[in-house]
């Protein structure tokens, strides 16, 4: 199997090394793991692409490239140039430092990389490690992903729905904020919503008196509704959420037609 990996934390991020090990185990001795990851951190860029300026791509080693762009850019670079003669069988994005459950998924560059892969017609999985008091300060805060990542991805390869629709399915996986030995299993759940938790801004002033705004998020230990991602993660489960890039509110189409057509 030929696997492409990317992330949004950057080419030197520890989570990417975790993903390299996961991908190598999945690919097997006869497989290949290709890395095309951002040269610098791209957290929070979502599905952004470098549409108005070119990006430099540097080859760092065999099948290892750094691109001055977003995770979606990295997938485009791989599909359109670096791997154009040998497209990947699977794209893995992550392992993100921090969760991409609930509303975080909408901002996530990690998920953005998986979205672009799906739009390019490739099977894709985004993987993120939830942090909390039981793992954030551990020797290896990615322990849950390390211990369960390969088995989770393999279960998706073998048992997930891989459709060929125009907006094809991709999968968003979040590992719970616990040590690997305390993971209770995995659950297929919907994307949740953390009420009263929003991104906002915090103003600061430089020594010269200029005002700057830092973007900051809200509490991450807020559970979402039963049967959704953050709730499952905080209960100790790996969450698997099937997603599409189709933003249509299909449930609103029929009533809206009755009112407006």
Quick structural gist:
The protein has 261 residues and is α/β, with parallel strands linked by helices.
Description:
This protein is α/β, with parallel strands linked by helices. Helix content is 29%, strand content 25%. It is built from 7 helices and 11 strands. The strands form 2 sheets. It has a 9-stranded mixed beta sheet, with helices on both faces. Strands 9-10 form a two-stranded antiparallel sheet. β6, α5 (143-159) and β7 form a beta-alpha-beta unit. α2 (71-82) runs parallel beside α4. The mean pLDDT is 97.
Notable traits:
two-stranded antiparallel ribbon; alpha/beta; 261 residues; 9-stranded mixed β-sheet; Stationary-phase Survival Protein Sure Homolog, Chain: A
**Total number of distinct structural domains:** 1
CATH topology: Stationary-phase Survival Protein Sure Homolog, Chain: A
CATH superfamily: Survival protein SurE-like phosphatase/nucleotidase
CATH architecture: 3-Layer(aba) Sandwich
**What Rg is obtained from the alpha carbons, in whole angstroms?**
19 Å
Q: How many helical elements? A: 7
What is the helical fraction, as a range of percent? 25-40%
Shape: globular
Q: Which blocks of ≥5 consecutive residues have pLDDT under 50?
A: none
Q: What gap, in angstroms, lies between the N and C termini?
A: 50 Å
**Oligomerization state of this entry?**
single chain
Q: What is the topology, as strand order, of the major beta sheet?
A: 3-4-2-1-5-6-7-11-8
Number of strands: 11
Helix-strand string = EHEEEHEHHEHEEEEHEH
**Structural class of the helices, strands and pairings?**
alpha/beta
Mind describing the biggest β-sheet?
9 strands, mixed
The percentage of residues in β strands lies in: 15-25%
GO molecular function: 3'-nucleotidase activity; 5'-nucleotidase activity; exopolyphosphatase activity; metal ion binding; nucleotide binding
Family: Belongs to the SurE nucleotidase family.
Enzyme class: hydrolase
Keywords: Cytoplasm, Hydrolase, Metal-binding, Nucleotide-binding
């Amino acid at each position: 199997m030929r696997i492409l990996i990317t992330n949004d934390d950057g080419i030197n991020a520890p989570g990417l090394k975790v993903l390299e090990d996961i991908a190598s185990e999945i690919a097997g001795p006869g497989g290949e793991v290709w890395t095309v990851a951002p040269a610098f951190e791209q957290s929070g860029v979502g599905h952004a692409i470098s549409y108005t300026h070119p990006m430099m791509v540097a080859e760092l080693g065999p099948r290892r490239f750094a691109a001055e762009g977003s995770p979606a850019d990295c997938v485009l670079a791989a599909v359109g140039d670096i791997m154009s003669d040998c497209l990947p069988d699977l794209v893995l994005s992550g392992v993100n430092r921090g969760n991409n459950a609930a509303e975080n998924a909408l901002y996530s560059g990690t998920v953005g990389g998986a979205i672009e892969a799906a739009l390019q017609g490739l099977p894709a999985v985004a993987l993120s490690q939830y942090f909390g008091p039981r793992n954030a300060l551990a020797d290896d805060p990615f322990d849950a992903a390390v211990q369960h990542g390969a088995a989770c991805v393999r279960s998706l390869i073998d048992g997930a729905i891989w459709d060929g629709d125009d907006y094809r399915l991709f999968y968003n996986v979040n590992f719970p904020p616990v040590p690997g030995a305390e993971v209770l299993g995995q659950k297929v759940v919907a994307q949740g919503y953390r009420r009263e938790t929003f991104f906002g801004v915090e103003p600061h002033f430089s020594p010269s008196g200029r005002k700057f705004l830092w973007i900051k998020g809200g509490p991450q230990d807020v559970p979402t509704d039963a049967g959704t991602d953050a709730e499952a993660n905080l209960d100790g489960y790996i969450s698997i959420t099937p997603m599409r890039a189709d933003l249509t509110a299909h449930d609103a189409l029929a009533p809206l037609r009755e009112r407006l057509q």
